[in-house]
Design goal:
This protein has one domain (4-254): Metal-dependent hydrolases (TIM Barrel). 41% of the residues lie in helices and 17% in strands. The chain is built from 9 helices and 8 strands. The chain has an 8-stranded parallel sheet with strand order 1-2-3-4-5-6-7-8. Bound molecules: nickel (II) ion (NI).
Length: 257
């Protein structure tokens, strides 16, 4: 039986309220052995920790997404820090920049991103980074904060091969999600071919970014298999090998034994 690690999901999302428990049982049947549930604000970070307490296969990250950066005040960083006292919290995230939606002013996005990287450094936890249409500033902040000393992953990577190379030099992992299965995924296909298998992670970002053949439906961690299959096809290896390696990579990055 294949063991898959979905390294990024939002199972706290309201779209799972009706069937969360049976959906998680289905994940286990589908060969998912680990899930990292990512927080995106204080409320969902709390929920993320609750899910990790309730389900053995779920681990959590805590942090505030760039969309919600403007909701942070000076107590937020302390709350995030306190949440990491639970041993199943394995990363700070998702944090980063989003210049596609610009839901928070860019100067505030940057300030809160840097602050949370600094927290991760203090706590010796890796970061989970969201970057949408903000590649230049994300790379600047990586350099400024010496991200290589912190470690982490670019989740649902959407950058170029050149950017992927830069990130690899900084020791960062690259996580691939459902859009790699889309017909127009030219750039991400090139990235998958370029990045060594031992630096790749797979994820669903459930309930978002549903892969082909279920594109348009609600996503869930069982569909991470389709991401693994696409990577296997692109690299000319078996899906079992992709599952095995990405599981090991995720455990190494997040310190899961
Ligand atoms: Ni996400």
């Amino acid at each position: 039986m294949m063991k898959l690690f979905d390294t990024h999901a939002h199972l706290d999302d309201g779209r799972f309220d009706e069937d969360r428990d049976s959906m998680i049982s289905q994940c286990i049947e589908d060969g998912v052995s680990l899930i990292l549930n990512a927080g995106s604000n204080i409320e969902t970070s709390l929920k993320s920790v609750s899910l990790a307490k309730e389900y053995e296969l779920i681990y959590a990250s805590v942090g505030v997404h760039p969309h919600d950066a403007a909701t942070m005040d000076d107590t937020s960083i302390d709350i995030i820090g306190e949440l990491t006292s639970n041993p199943k919290v394995k990363a700070i995230g998702e944090i980063g920049l989003d210049y596609y939606y610009d839901f928070s002013p860019r100067d505030i996005q940057k300030k809160r991103f840097i602050e949370q990287i600094d927290l991760a450094r203090q706590l010796k936890l890796p970061v989970i980074v969201h970057d949408r249409d903000s590649h230049g500033d994300v790379m600047d902040i990586f350099k400024k904060t010496r991200i290589n000393e912190v470690g982490g992953v670019l989740h649902s990577f959407s950058g170029s091969v050149e950017m992927a190379r830069e990130c690899l030099k900084m020791g960062l992992y690259i996580s691939i999600s459902g859009p790699v299965t889309f017909k127009n995924a030219v750039k991400t296909v090139e990235v998958v071919k370029e990045v060594p298998l031992d630096m790749l992670l797979i994820e669903t970002d459930s309930p978002y970014l549903t892969p082909v053949p279920y594109r348009g439906k609600r996503n869930y961690p069982g569909y991470v298999r389709y991401v693994a299959e696409k990577i296997a096809e692109l690299k000319g290896i078996t899906v079992e090998e992709v599952a095995q390696k990405t599981l090991e990579n995720g455990k190494r990055l997040f310190g899961i034994l």
